[in-house]
Amino acid sequence: MRAMLFTGVGRPLQLTEMPIPEPGPGQLLLKVHACGICRTDLHIIDGELTEPKLPLIPGHQIVGSVVAAGPGGGRFQSGARVGVPWLGSTCGTCHYCQSGRENLCDVPRFTGYQIDGGFAEYTVADSRFCFPIPAGYPDLQAAPLLCAGLIGYRSLVMAGEGPRLGIYGFGAAAHLVTQVARFQGREVYAFTRAGDAAGQEFARRMGARWAGSAEQRPPEELDAAIIFAPAGELVPAALRVVRKGGVVVCGGIHMSEIPAFSYDLLWGERSLRSVANLTRQDGEEFLALAPRIPIQTEATAYPLAAANEALEDLRRGAFCGAAVVVPG
């Protein structure tokens, strides 16, 4: 099979011929149809996440069809279309796993980080951590649901039920969670880089009531804000526009250093919290909700050999919505 291989920080992914992997106990062998590109992939490639296995096939928003199953992996029938998320496996025995918080497992393994991912023609995955793909979602549109959608959904739940929601960084996760928030009857206020007229127009098209730069104050005080951009300076910016008792949620796996800020921004029983990974329950809830809305994903397709170009386009903000690698 062909795969895009990461061999170390500072090196582009290499298009490589590799043996098709064999499914082990509890695993599925999948033919990859599409794999979404995530900012986490950039954090791995740039060395900001420091524990990847090497060499590594990145990619953790995988849509594929079942080719074969290892012993005990027959949860899905041959040919079934399934999704593989970031959370690839957990121990099942630690305090967090036993208390319904497997996203905080002490010894997790992550797809496209410690486990080879979906920038390839085939991959293997733990069948217990795969999801059936909702009918009606083509592969290209389904892939972003598996991380951008899931993390966005978990972040929205963490933000509480306030009617006015701010979103900082209007990319893959934001354009999906905006649709969920609007379905719930909330108002969305979108914050982008200064001068990003295309991103602000995209936010309005997705249902945002207002869109402006991160330096601006929205026309209304917000009940909560979610920060998807990996920029620590957005934390005090978001606290400034959230009402007393409001919540600021950091929705990324990595963020630059948060600058010092005065206590008055946090005072008034404002809360600052992070979202880590996801649980399988998150996946089941969100993938059941998506077709009810229905969520429309905006995705730009790249062939497998162009994965480096796709990653650079993500870095530059060259597209709206999500990017997806299509191996076929």
From TrEMBL:
PANTHER family associated with the record: ALCOHOL DEHYDROGENASE 1-RELATED (PTHR42940), VACUOLAR PROTEIN SORTING-ASSOCIATED PROTEIN 11 (PTHR42940:SF8)
List the cofactors: Zn(2+)
* A Pfam family hit: ADH_N
SMART domains from the entry?
PKS_ER (SM00829)
The UniProt family comment states: Belongs to the zinc-containing alcohol dehydrogenase family.
Protein's name according to its UniProt entry: alcohol dehydrogenase
Q: Which InterPro entries match?
A: ADH-like_N, ADH_Zn_typ-2, ER, GroES-like_sf, NAD(P)-bd_dom_sf
From the UniProt annotation, give the residues forming the signal peptide: none
